[in-house]
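Deliverable D4.2, example record:
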Amino acid sequence: MKCDVLKHYSMALRSGQNGIQLLLGAEQEAQHIVNAARTAKQARLKQAKEEAEKESAEFRTQMEAEFQRKVAESSGDSGANVKRLEQETNAKIQHLKTEASRISHDVIQMLLRHVTTVKN
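Output generated by the structure prediction step:
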């Protein structure tokens, strides 16, 4: 019986050492998996950041081009706008002069009538 107990104890000791070695190996493997996942995550974050910066730069370039186009249009139009406004103003002035000369005789007659009429 004593021999059986020693055999059992010896097997348990060996299997316990094997179990510890197995656990240590599993722990190292898990650490490698975690490190690989961490590295992959960092690489993906770096890639996402680069993509975002690229998109941002493209958008900024597009908006700058749109802004420059609008500036060019408005500055080109400012000369045309000034010319158009001058033409409209001159047309209105001419219209007012024409109307004034057309009705000036009637206005003078009305003023003379009111000035010379005596009311009681």
